[in-house]
Q: What sequence folds into this?
């Protein structure tokens, strides 16, 4: 579930009659959050919390989305405080845990990031969605062997897990594994699999992403995953323009956009040395 999907659900839920006064402020905050109006969202979420009449799950949502908004503004310590407040209400909230991991990483506090990763791993160990998030976070921590181990368990049935496994394999100097058993070349994201195998060009991938049946996120992924493969191979001149395009095409709250921005910052920093 993406953050915007979570927020949209809450707006629909707010139509329930008899809601408290802070609910209107919560709704306004969600609307501003979806519009990427971070200062306004923070203000509304703060008002909703200060109203003092939200039920625990509404308080959790206000803190969670305010934390996202703070992270968008680069106010990482405030974001961590909100995610910590969420976990005080719901200790097993995988979104708050995963975002707090990324926040700790932004502060270069790897010890706390790893501690949260351990908590995340203990939650629903058989949940494929939780495992996928954990695999991505391990990748972002540079724990490629751990990330590969997680994605290898899903790679035969989840094409995206296969893609992440190959990124880890390339980084670790390991050979690529066979494609998923249900692989069909004409279905998305299989053009990306073909690209990873050297059987398709970037133009082929983009053409598939722009087909009439393509979903909106395909344009994001068509830039993001090839960029990631180029970066894993240290082909930064090829990766950089694709990361730039991914920043433009990926949803503002997506992990793909966040990682693309991080990669561009690394490329820029390296070029300036």
A:
């Amino acid at each position: 579930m993406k953050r915007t999907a979570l927020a949209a659900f809450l707006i629909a839920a707010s139509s329930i009659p008899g809601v408290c006064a802070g609910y209107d402020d919560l709704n306004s905050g969600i609307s501003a959050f979806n519009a990427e109006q971070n200062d306004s969202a923070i203000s509304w979420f703060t008002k909703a919390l200060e109203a003092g009449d939200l039920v625990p799950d509404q308080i959790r949502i206000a803190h969670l989305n305010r934390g996202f908004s703070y992270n968008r503004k680069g106010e990482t310590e405030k974001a961590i405080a909100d995610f910590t407040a969420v976990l005080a209400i719901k200790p097993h909230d995988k979104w708050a845990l995963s975002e707090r991991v990324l926040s700790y990483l932004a502060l270069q506090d790897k010890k706390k990031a790893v501690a949260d990763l351990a908590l995340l791993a203990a939650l629903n160990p058989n949940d494929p969605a939780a495992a996928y998030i954990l695999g991505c976070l391990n990748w972002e921590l540079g724990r490629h062997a751990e990330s590969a181990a997680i994605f290898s368990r899903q790679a035969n049935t989840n094409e995206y897990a296969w893609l992440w496994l190959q990124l880890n394999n390339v980084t670790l100097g390991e050979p690529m594994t066979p494609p998923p058993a249900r692989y069909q070349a004409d279905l998305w994201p299989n053009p990306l699999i073909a690209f990873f195998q050297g059987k398709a060009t970037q133009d082929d991938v983009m053409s598939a992403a722009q087909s009439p049946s393509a979903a909106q996120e395909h344009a994001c992924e068509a830039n993001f995953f090839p960029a990631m493969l180029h970066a894993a191979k240290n082909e930064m001149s090829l990766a950089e323009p694709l990361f730039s395009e991914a920043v433009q095409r990926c949803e503002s709250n997506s992990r793909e956009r966040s990682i693309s921005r991080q990669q561009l910052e690394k490329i820029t920093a390296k070029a300036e040395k």
The chain is about 70% helix and 0% strand.
